[in-house]
Amino acid sequence: MNITIPIDLQPLAEAFQKENTEVYVVGGLVRNALLSLPPSDIDVCSRLSPQEIVDKMPKHGIRVIEKAAEMGTVELHFDGVIVEHTTFRRESYADGGEHRPRTVAFGESLTDDAWRRDFSVNALYANLRTGEVSDPTGGIPDLEKQIIRTTSADPDDIMRSDALRVLRLVRFACELGFAIDENTWLAAKRNAPKLADIAQERRRQEFVKILLTDVRYPNLGRDELRSPLRGLHLLDELDVWDNLVPEFNLARGMEQRPDHHRYDVLEHSFQVCAAAPPTEKMRLAGLLHDVGKPDCKRETGVQYAHDKYGERISKRVLGDLRFPTRTITEVSQLVEGHMYDIQHMAKADTLRVRFATWGRERTRDQTLLREADIRGCGYDVDYVAEDWRALYETMLTDGTPFSERELAITGQQLMEASGLPEGKELGELKKQLFLHCVKHPKDNNLAKLTHLAIKR
Fold it and tell me: Residue 427 burial (CB < 10 Å; 0-12/13-18/19+)?
């Protein structure tokens, strides 16, 4: 069996051929080629050690970056392409689930290299020169059966060696829409607590990929096997929340008003996440929007202020997983704002001011979260957030300013019109003009603003 090697890898194949060494592309690129999917990350391997790569490749016009040479890994840069090369190796791990091997031994054998990898469908190799596929661990039959299985006959050894594979198992199953081998699944359950040994950043990376599995391969379409909802259910069955979102253990089984919610708090959170637009920010906001309910109910006896609790808790959860500051801020703001005007009683001018204060992007996202929240209740409803969406669209087209910077008067012009010096009083006047124009966008012109400033 052969695959077509991407043409932009030809210079690398030629470089290794000149060194009389076979080089293989391995993992996702081979798997995806056999499944007629777009290529994944480009990883190659050979018997050459990192030092041999450093010594030999530059003379063929290939720049070498030592990335993790002690692990056998270097980066190869050529013609705008970046490829990760790893020397054939065997490895051993300390007790626990730490991602990093304790010892690494370089080898000569592609077969030995294959058995250290996680799943059979990821242990497929293709000769970079000929495209001929090698399958030491039975990955091709597993592709045909659409099943994820560990390379080793002892799946506990695979999961115990690197507990990140517990999350990778869920991700690959949901990205590809594959079933999970029973022994592999049971080993993942037994070793899931070892995720505590994995760096938070790595947990975060896999977690986000699980939340976005439905858009990883658009050509496969969207169904229940490729959905983030399936991924979240699998994570729940694996009992991993202590190492991702500990509060979800309290949300499981927490009942809600049956006239508003078909699901408990945990399932509702999963449903809202799956209904949210497929971006990291929106999926996280959907997942965490009710994360404050358990603490709020325990401390106050009611869930009324759970949005405030949720803002604080979501900051902590995302911070623990080492999300970027901007993501933490934006998601926690959406969580804090998701209950605003839940009774649909706010007047148009009140909503205008709130939307303008939030800004364009947050108003859009808050509306989308409101819609996902309603859809995630489990009941068919006609109303989603038409009033919010309609008003927002009007504000986008009628010239409403969404910040004081968008007023049609400069600070200098405002000082001249009002006679006020720069300072607190001038700032208050500018704020008043902004709020006026939010409610009366046609007044956002220099003549009118000058008149209002003089008249103040």
Answer: middle
